[in-house]
From TrEMBL:
InterPro entries referenced in this protein's UniProt entry, alphabetically: Aminotrans_V_dom (IPR000192), Aminotrans_V_PyrdxlP_BS (IPR020578), PyrdxlP-dep_Trfase (IPR015424), PyrdxlP-dep_Trfase_major (IPR015421), PyrdxlP-dep_Trfase_small (IPR015422)
Domain of life, source organism: Bacteria
Keywords: Aminotransferase, Pyridoxal phosphate, Transferase
Catalytic activity: (sulfur carrier)-H + L-cysteine = (sulfur carrier)-SH + L-alanine
Pfam families assigned: Aminotran_5
Name of the protein in its database record: Class V aminotransferase
Cited Gene3D superfamilies: Aspartate Aminotransferase, domain 1 (3.90.1150.10), Type I PLP-dependent aspartate aminotransferase-like (Major domain) (3.40.640.10)
Cofactor: pyridoxal 5'-phosphate
GO molecular function, one term: transaminase activity
Domain Aminotransferase class V: 28-425
Length: 450
């Protein structure tokens, strides 16, 4: 569809929240890298669908047929969103990126001496499933990028034995975007397939899987609806139609068999085989509505808006004394060089990261996240924690001893943010550096600072 200039409206952008002193302020959401609120259009679709949804693939009634139609239509929407078609790919609906990547790992059958490569930059969802398989972890350059030479050397060392390389298209810690086409060419030249964790990239930039079989195509893509302005509980794994032809699905049950007799089972094929049980039809329809709305507006427009905000945020964050912004090339982004997502991980000299996050929430109405962002290897690398120190912390945790876990504060941008949101963040950070902390903070029973 043709792009229009009306930016999709995000629900809750004017919600007021209480501060420590009871005053109420407009909530500033700077945590889009974790989840995004729904688009107004998504809320409308979910509201209307509430009177209509019913079991998909099972009922003969009108509502079931309508639900089945919308559910199946959502596969086409997903395909359009990632630039592919049902002629070559299958969309499997899952709960989220984590489930998508676990399913992919489950379905990745390795012959003796075959292996998978992932990277040290990955979110745990694209790391831990592969640690259960023969694998190697591609190292990072000192400044925190995936080391392409290391990737190449590993592909060469295991000539023809690397079945799959799996990498995130954009980091949830530094907002760095991988040069996916360059990675694809390298991976395919060595006879491997490329899977992309697109959880962070898809809400912010257009992604195209390209023509299957070409050197720079992406073979597999995974993403989550809740980072794409839809509610929780729906995500997609897009795979070549042939990839899951052999082997067992992760779950079996309702919908995964064509015929069950006492002598055996005739299994279903394609997405039916992977989606055991009653699916999340509302979640899937909501996710498709969000994707349609983003496509209507145009991902280039989304990128343009966020790029401008990102540059503004870098300039403003630089004014905060003692603020250390992690990841390379922020300057290059400012001068129109390398593109980056608006994901800012930082520390402030002398201020514990979790306290900074708590003060921003309680005294400034700004929602950020702090910690290691489910990317322990990457955060440790950026903070310069040695492997020995990390191993020592692990031993202490196992023994039940207290550990000061490394961490950072993360502020991340989305479609609904404006310059005034960044101004509020920066005012809060500047006050913190001046020692203007008005409330008392203590750990609650969950260990969070309040
Ligand atoms: N990969 C990346 C890069 C992410 O940022 C996230 C979410 N933080 C995930 C995977 C996991 O997504 P989900 O929690 O929706 O499974």
């Amino acid at each position: 569809q043709k792009a229009t200039n009306v930016r999709p409206r995000v629900v809750g952008s004017r919600t007021e929240v209480p501060l420590w002193n009871g005053e109420r302020v407009r909530y500033v959401n700077l945590d889009s890298a974790a989840s995004t609120p729904p688009l107004a259009k998504v809320r409308q679709v979910v509201d209307e669908f509430a009177s209509w949804y019913s079991s998909v693939h099972r009922g003969a009634g009108y509502k079931s047929r309508l639900s089945t139609y919308l559910y199946e239509n959502a596969r086409d929407v997903v395909m359009r969103f990632v630039g592919t078609t049902p002629r070559t790919h299958v969309v499997v609906f899952v709960r989220n990126t984590t489930e998508a990547l676990n399913l992919l790992a489950h379905r990745t059958l390795l012959e003796e001496d075959e292996l998978v490569l992932c990277t040290k930059m990955e979110h745990h969802s694209n790391l831990l499933p592969w640690l259960r398989k023969p694998h190697e972890v591609v190292q990072l350059t000192e400044d925190g990028r995936v080391d392409m030479d290391d990737l190449k050397q590993r592909l060469e060392r295991h000539k023809g034995k690397v079945k799959l390389v799996t990498i995130s298209a954009a980091s949830n810690v530094t907002g760095l975007m991988a040069d996916i086409k360059a990675v694809a060419r390298l991976v395919h030249a060595h006879g491997a397939k490329l899977a992309v964790d697109a959880a962070q990239l898809t809400p912010h930039r257009a992604l195209s899987m390209g023509t299957p079989g070409t050197a720079d195509c992406i073979d597999v893509v995974a993403f989550s609806g809740h980072k794409l302005y839809a509610p929780y509980g729906a995500g997609a794994l897009v795979v070549p139609a042939t990839l899951f032809a052999d082997g067992d699905p992760m779950l079996v049950g309702g919908g995964t068999a064509c015929l069950v007799t006492s002598s055996g089972v005739k299994w279903a094929t394609g997405s039916d085989l992977e989606e055991a049980g009653s699916p999340n039809v509302v979640g899937v329809v909501a996710m498709a509505a969000a994707l349609e709305e983003l496509m209507r507006y145009g991902m280039d427009q989304v990128a343009k808006h966020e790029r401008e905000l990102t540059r503004y945020a870098v300039r403003r964050l630089r004014t905060v004394p003692g603020l250390r912004l992690f990841g390379p090339t922020w300057d290059s982004m400012l001068t129109g060089g390398e593109d980056r997502l608006g994901v800012f991980c930082f520390t402030i000299d002398g201020q514990p990261y979790e306290k900074v996050a708590a003060v921003l929430a309680n005294e400034w109405g700004v929602g950020v996240r702090s910690g290691c962002f489910c990317a322990h290897l990457y955060v440790s690398h950026l903070l310069g924690v040695s492997d020995e120190d990390a191993a020592d912390s692990r031993e202490r945790l196992i023994s039940g001893l207290p550990v000061d876990l490394p961490g950072m504060v993360r502020a991340s941008l989305g479609l609904a943010n404006s310059k005034s949101d960044i101004d509020r963040l920066v005012s809060g950070l500047q006050a913190i550096t001046r020692g203007e902390i008005r409330a008392q903070y203590e750990h609650n029973e969950h260990g969070d600072l309040e």
